[in-house]
Amino acid sequence: MMGFLWLVLAAAQPVSPPAIGMAETPIAITPEGPIESVLLYPVFRDPFDCGEHAAGEPAIAGDALGTDCQVMGGTTGKNRSFAKAYRTDGARNEDWYSWGADVLAPADGVVVGYLPNPRVNEPGTKGRPPAGLIQIRRADGVVIMLAHLTDFAVRMGDEVKAGQVIAKVGNNGPSYAPHIHVGASRGSTPLQIRWDQKAMGALQN
After folding, report:
1. Mind listing the pLDDT tens digit for each residue in 77-130?
2. Which of 30, 165, 188, 198 is most exposed, with minimal Cβ within 10 Å?
3. What is the DSSP annotation of the chain?
4. What is the pLDDT of residues 44-53, one digit of tens each?
């Protein structure tokens, strides 16, 4: 699979092979008992909303039980109203509050996956894999995958701290609109993501 991904990227952008790689991504198992959860640092400074993947979807570790997150606008300031994902009609990437937003590292760890994709999808049109992604391995072995990223601020092998800017939100790979996917796994066991509300409160106050 890695060979296929490398060929796709090589055609899109000249890069050095050692700068690209992915941690092991086994097929995720479906948890038989209670689903384990993992507490992560918020991936955005601004208010955001996430839609979770259901259990049992066939997917690789880091995709199963993941969540798709977008910055939500309209919730602050003098003319605050209901949260919304985009301005105007959302026909342009620039209309989306997520577009180009800083993505924060959700945990301390080491970058063990680094796969850029410079292509940009138009909203409403699903692009082709792979998504631009970063994988971070925590000291306890949990691997967190963040996808549909652009403008990476870290490289393969870098150590990162929770809250550090690691990239910006893009719209690449199999994506219909600017957002990021966040998934976490321990080996082939997917984990349900919970956000550290205390850290979120500190960011937004």
Report:
1. 676 678 899 998 999 999 999 999 999 999 999 999 999 999 999 999 999 999
2. 198
3. -HHHHHHHHHHHS---GGG-B----PBPPPPSSSPPEEEE--S-SS-EEEEEPPTT---BTTTTT-EEEEE-BSSSSTT--S-BSBSTTS-SGGGBTTTT-EEE-SSSEEEEEEE-----PPTT---PSPPPEEEEE-TTS-EEEEESEES-S--TT-EE-TT-EEEEE---SS-SSS-EEEEEEETTEEEEEEE-HHHHHHHH-
4. 999 999 999 9
CATH number assigned to the domain with residue range 2-204, chosen from the 4 options 2.70.70.10, 1.10.10.10, 3.10.20.70, 3.40.50.2300:
2.70.70.10
Q: How far is CA 74 from CA 96, 123, 171, 202, in A?
A: 12, 20, 21, 20
